[in-house]
Automatic annotation (TrEMBL):
Regions that span the bilayer: 21-41, 53-75, 87-114, 120-139, 252-270, 312-334, 346-366, 373-393, 399-421
GO cellular component: plasma membrane
Protein name stated in the entry: O-antigen/teichoic acid export membrane protein
Location of this chain's protein in the cell: Cell membrane
Protein origin, superkingdom: Bacteria
Region forming the signal peptide: none
Amino acid sequence: MIRCRPHRGELLRTVLANCSARLLAILGLTLATVLVARTGGPSAVGEYALLRMMPGLIGVLCVLGLPGALAFFLAEPRRELPRLWPTLMAIGFAGALTGTALWVAAAPLIAKVFFPHEPAWLIAVAGATVASQLFLTLGKTALQGLEDRRGGDAVIAAEELAFLPCFVLPLLVGIHGIAAIIIGLGLADLVVAVDAWRRVSRRLGWRRFGLAGNGYGWWGRPDRVLGKQVASYGLRGQVGGLITLLNLRLDVAILGAIAGPAILGGYAVASKYAELLRLPGTALTWVFYPRLAKLEQNQAAGVARRMIRPALVGIVVAAVPVALLASPVMRLLYGASFGSAVTPARVLVAGMILAGASGVASAYLYGRGTPGLNSIVLGVGLAITVVLDVTLIPRYGALGAAAASTAAYLTTDALLIGVLLRLSGTGPRHRTTVAVGEGTS
């Protein structure tokens, strides 16, 4: 039982390092979006946003929540289980094949709904990114499970930065449009994924890229019983992560289906701009969740409650210049054709003001062993998102999507903060057993 309180300076450095990695990722995504916008306009940006989101979502669904289960099963002493890695690899490869097959089969429908001006065969080719994105996601979460925070931060940053040079390559040889986007995404995923798995191999001490004997390497005969345990845990843990992803990206899918890629392109730019304010909250959850889990219940509650106010004030203060700079930033980076994105961006900024404090709340709920409460609250936000999206988007377009997301964000974040304040003030003083890894990304 651990009673020591985490060192404040070390924790701050860890949070800042994670924030910096995520900021670099957003910088890379911004530069890539600018290039896509300058070469293809708002429509190309909309296609880029959809292709960055949809294949990854399908892949995660087809591996039975494996990304959420990795941190738990790679924690000591479970990481020493015989045939663990062959079992994890079997689930990963089976999910990648299933997800790719589903995408290819649904390509005509996907093209008709989301990419009406593109040939179905080209959308089918994009199915290759289901596997490449999944390969990258599993490598990133494996690093998290092995507690390689520096390696995990490097992969987070490289995940978006790598797209820019990989997108330029097809442009240089005369390939443009959505084909260049697909090639760029696939190449970037593979480059970063190979580096992620190289880091995993080095962390495990396997010099020959995962080749180890006695069932302890990556390759071998999977364990069916262990596979069922991994899938059972992963599916339970994936609920919160999937709801979070839908809360953040469902508006993109609905707007793309209803309004088309051109309007979606402007909204995607506005959404990514506003999400700058969500970085500190995400970093706080990522860093503090395992730390709070090691503390006594009353210690964790005290730390979480003390973190609420500075996290809240910091984001509120940062929101003012972010909102004011929306217009010059949008027009300078993306051009006059993206002027319509300014108002949705400002509406979305208003929805982010509680994000820092809610990041603390999520870390506390995970750390006290109650990630289910986090999922329930996120489910409320998802319901609000769905109802308001289908109500407002047909009439108001991108502005309706921004208003719906803002309402969902504020409601979800306020509920999470309220749950934290209630539980941290009245919770029992004994240590709660924690399901490490559940609900993480």
